Amino acid sequence: MKSSFWVKVSAILWKDVLTEFRTRDTFTSVLVFSILVIVIFNFTFVPGSQMFETVAPGVLWVTFTFAGVLSLNRSFARDKEKGCLDGLVLCPADRVALYLGKMLSCLAFMLVVEAIVLPVFAVLFDLPLYLPKLAVIAVVATIGFAAVGTVFSALVVHTRARELLLPLLFFPIIIPVIIAAVKASELALSAASWSEMTSWLTIIAAFDVIFTVAAALVFDYVLEE
Amino acid sequence: MTAGDSLASDQVVQIKGLNKSFSGNLALRGVDLTVSRGEFLTVFGPNGAGTTTLLRILATITRPSAGRIWVSGLEAGKDSTEIRRRVGYVPHQTLLYDDLTAYENLRFYGRMYDVPDLESRLQALAERMGLTSQLHRLVRTLSRGIQQRFSIVRALLHDPSILLLDEPETGLDQQASAMMVEMLDAGAKTVIMTSHRLENSLELADRAVILASGRITYDAPKSSLDKATFAGVYARYSEMK
Amino acid sequence: MQGRLIDYSLIGVCFTLMIAAISLISVYVPTEEQMGVVQRIFYFHVPLAWVAFLAFFVVFIMSLLYIWKGDEKWDFRAYASAEIGVVFTTMVLITGPIWAKSAWGTWWTWDMRLTTTLVLWFIYVAYLMVRSFASDEERGARFAAVVGIIGFIDVPVVALAIVLSRTQHPSPIVFEGGLASSMLLTLLVSVAAFTVFYVLLLRLRASTRQMTSEIMKLRQELEI
User: Fold this and answer.
1) Which of A17, A148, B69, B79 has its CA 20 to 30 A from that of B41?
2) C147 to chain A: which residues are within 8 Å by CB?
3) Under 8 Å CB-to-CB from A196, ≥6 apart: which residues?
4) B-chain residue closest to A14, CA distance
5) How far apart are CA B2 and CA A217, in angstroms?
6) If you ran DSSP here, which 8-state letter would residue A117 be given?
7) Which of B216 and C29 is assigned the larger pLDDT?
8) Is pLDDT above 80 for B184?
9) Which range has the worst mean pLDDT, B102-106, C30-34, C147-151?
């Protein structure tokens, strides 16, 4: 693809990263929120019981999903201020470039949060700190979150009660990702081999591909007034 | 019918039967309008007359409900990306990110518009608007007037041939307005400006149009226009709404 | 005029088929031995589920057409189909547990069909909400089309993920050794009746929307 396409994608990514780096308001709140969710889950189980191992993957993915929807809510909110969203629509850029730029910035944001939450989770649930399999699952699944979430995030900024509407749209669609990610994480935590996880990772990867393409194609229709 | 058939080569903007409704309320009803190359057109209209909607549709931010639009012979909805390259838009809002510096904002938009020689173009424009010293400050720390000037630099960055100005007099101080007019003259661009006040705005225009309740109710070149009569007509349409 | 004729004949066909289906279900078809009389809800449950899936497929096609062509008549059909689909899915989710309790001894299992149906219900309830929450109707229609497209693509992926995750549970058996011919006949008539009913509802609902929109436009043009 043309270099100007990627210049635009990286311009959007750079702009979002720089703004977030300067203010850190979304980052701090999402991070604290995620750790809070894990802590609250801790209270709902009997400490030290065998349940922990079976429940841990679920706790992790509920946390990631909540954190994801919270950060998606913020993704376009900043563009909405001062009409910057109009500024984006005005640009003579392929809508796929706009989509990819925003999608990558959502992805980067969620991954950074997850990279901090994961060790905290491991400590609180008494798991080994080095979890490469879990990290891979998290990356693949978060791509799926960002692929779908970016479109819905752009959509809800033009609706009433957007903070309420986003999870209602987002959660049902990403159910397959959550199912597969939880199953794969169960295997990862029980020290299963990579090959046992392949079918789950394949489902998530297929989801990523299908929804990145579909979302990029319909993105124009949520942007223009 | 293609654009070429009906479009004289110097007609930069052509609008036919434009309608726009928001939840069943018509903001624009059957607007027909042509603008020639190099013309300075002022669209007068009271608040709610549909002037902002008209500019947003020309800027390809808003989709028309019905009707067709050509900008430089390109049809909106088909060649929107090419239209976007040719149009500069200065709305009420600044379109600048608060948490970036003015320079970072302009660099961002410059890259989005594929501006060649971005750095020198950016510096030159900022200098002409008297903004060089403010370039590296965060936008949120700048005054409203300075932000508005940067917004104009943003709109001119890609050297558009058509400039859309939405009530610029509301945000700009005298000095900035003067600078902008000077820059517009130098560029020999086509300008479509909206305004709800007659003072100052009429002097700039080559042609004046009144938009009331989503319809064009008056259209005359300035040469045939008597200011007092026009003021009377405008007052009547303003009340009509 | 022609549309009227089609509507009236549809009403006739639908009425006849419904009467036939109800008599077959309550009189003709024999009571299933193990499950007893409750099993007869099956002849409503399955056609309802079929119509619900059909309706959401129609939403998908109409949403694509709306986005592609931009003509609001496609949107009216998508909207109508989504409403019918949500109503029918709701009925599926109510009739299902009633039957399941007697057939499997449990109100609900997280098997593929049940879970997918529930997820579908959530997606299309969100579809309807997007419309009413959007800042403007035209925009709401476009947003809904996006949800209609993405939502439908999601269905097979959801089903696949659930099938793979539930392999340890044997999938519930509806009937061992297939359906008796009398049961199959009853089911087919009932499916036909509900399908015609769906087409009729879709036509009426979409044309009502069309007329409302035309009245709104005329009213707008008459003002001032």
Assistant:
1) B79
2) 155, 169
3) A187
4) B108
5) 27
6) H
7) B216
8) no
9) C30-34
pLDDT tens, C36-52? Answer: 777 788 888 889 999 99
Chain C neighbors (3+ CB pairs < 8 Å): A, B
More confident residue, B57 or C100: B57
The reply to whether residue B97 touches residue A4, judged by beta carbons under 8 angstroms, is: no
Residue A129: pLDDT over 80: no
Please tell me the distance from the alpha carbon of residue A169 to that of residue C146, in angstroms, as a whole number.
11
The residue type found at C40 is R
Angle of CA points B104, B110, B111, to nearest 5°: 95
The domain locations on chain A are 3-223
Q: How many CB atoms lie within 10 A of CB C187?
A: 20
Closest by Cα among A61, A79, A78 to A69: A61
CB A103 within 8 A of CB A14: no
Give the per-residue pLDDT at C53: 94
C-beta atoms of B62 and A225 within 8 A: yes
> Which residues, other chains included, contact A13 with Cβ-Cβ below 8 Å and sequence gap of 6+?
A101, A104, A105, A108
Three-state DSSP at C36 gives strand
pLDDT at residue number C172: 52
Summarised one tens digit per residue, pLDDT across range C108-133 is 888 788 889 999 999 999 999 999 89
The answer to whether residue B191 sits within a structural domain is yes
Q: How far apart are CA A65 and CA A178, in angstroms?
A: 8
Q: Any idea where the domains of chain C sit in the sequence?
A: 2-168+183-222
Q: Which two tokens stand for residue C125?
A: 């309830």
> How far away is chain C from the Cα of B30, in angstroms, using its nearest Cα?
10
Q: A224–B99: do the CB atoms touch at under 8 Å?
A: no
For B80, the domain range is: 3-93+162-240
Q: Are the Cβ atoms of C136 and B65 closer than 8 angstroms?
A: no
DSSP 8-state class, residue C134: B
- The number of domains in chain B is 1
Average pLDDT of every residue of chain A: 90
CATH number for the domain harbouring residue B192 = 3.40.50.300
Q: Best of A82, A94, A221 to disrupt the B interface by mutation (most B CBs within 10 Å)?
A: A82
Confidence of residue B10 (pLDDT cuts 50, 70, 90): confident
